[in-house]
Design brief:
There is one protein chain. Helix content is about 30%, strand content about 25%. By secondary structure, the chain is α/β, with parallel strands linked by helices. Strands 4-12-11-10-9-5-6-8-7 form a nine-stranded mixed sheet, with helices on both faces. It has a three-stranded antiparallel sheet with strand order 1-2-3. Helix 1 runs parallel beside helix 2 (about 85-95) and helix 3 (about 110-130) crosses helix 5 (about 150-155). The radius of gyration is 18 Å and the shape is globular.
């Protein structure tokens, strides 16, 4: 399945009843960040794009992308780009227009330090909800695609056998709580061998979600996404067959104050 293409096809049905003015692209932001929430985590080094129609959409970047002055004031549905992160940020902004119905909504408060713990607990709760029947027979297996140290350690504490894969050359080969982070070439074998694949939203702009989805479905692996990238796409992704999406609209947990986290389920 081509996930981005399927999401775009959904727009044609969802846009009914919405005026063209709602789809005007009003803003673009490009921000580079360095962030390390605590000693368990790597230094996150990313650039993210924000796009705004009525609401905001976001994508982390897996390559170079420039914001284009000529895009402002254009119909977001008609914009095209060679950069996956730009396409997903704009698509996410389009989906911000449509009504969404999360199964659960959490509001987390405080500093980035305290919100890191709260966010971790929410994500881990969703993953472990699929492991109950497995843990009675054997040790459940989870692969974290886009390694997050705090999540890996929390799942290890719950008796889960963990794998981790990532595309960050600075992280590949390192260990987190005894779990060696493998390269992206090991993602599909680990997804096939796991009970749950916990996958970052960054798999949307780089297109790797397509093969991950097909592998998970063929292997009977539950697929859980955690999305800062494409947070407004959570409900639509579940309609496509993703088991669960933990969506975190901007502003993210890395900023002080209140953040919202929505949980969608298939």
């Amino acid at each position: 399945m081509r996930v981005e293409e399927e999401l775009r096809n959904m727009v044609h049905d969802l846009e009914r009843g919405h005026g063209d003015e709602e789809f005007i692209l009003r803003g673009l932001w490009k921000t580079q960040l360095l962030f390390k929430p605590n000693e368990h985590e790597r230094i996150f080094e990313y650039t993210y794009l924000l796009a705004q129609t009525v609401g905001q959409g976001c994508s982390y970047c897996c390559g170079r992308a420039c914001i284009d002055r000529e895009w402002i004031g254009q119909d977001a549905r008609k914009l095209q780009s060679d950069h996956g992160c730009m396409r997903i940020a704009v698509l996410d902004a389009i989906f911000s227009i449509f009504d969404r119905h999360p199964a659960k909504t959490f509001f987390i408060e405080g500093t980035s330090i305290s919100k890191t713990r709260q966010r971790t607990d929410i994500v881990v709760e969703q993953v472990t909800s699929y492991l109950g029947s497995i843990s009675a027979r054997r040790k459940p297996r989870v692969v974290n695609v886009g390694a997050v140290g705090n999540i890996i350690l929390s799942l290890l504490d719950r008796g889960v056998e963990m794998y981790a894969t990532d595309l960050d050359e600075n992280l590949i080969g390192r260990e987190i709580g005894g779990v060696r982070v493998e390269g992206g070439d090991q993602t599909l074998p680990r997804v096939a061998d796991s009970d749950v694949a916990l996958v970052t939203g960054m798999t949307l702009p780089n297109g790797s979600i397509n093969d991950i989805y097909e592998t998970a479905k063929a292997s009977g692996t539950r697929l859980v996404m955690f999305n800062e990238t494409g947070a407004n796409l959570g409900e639509a992704l579940c309609r496509l067959g993703i088991d669960c999406v933990v969506s975190e609209p901007f502003p993210f947990y890395i900023f002080q104050g209140q953040s919202r986290i929505d949980v969608y389920r298939r």
